[in-house]
Amino acid sequence: MSAQPFAQRAIALFLQRQRWPFRNLLAHCQLSLRGTELVVTCPDAHARHALWLRRHKIAASAPNLGVTAIRFRQSPQRPHLAGSPEPDSDEWAAES
Question: What CATH number does the domain located at 3-93 have?
Answer without folding.
Answer: 3.30.300
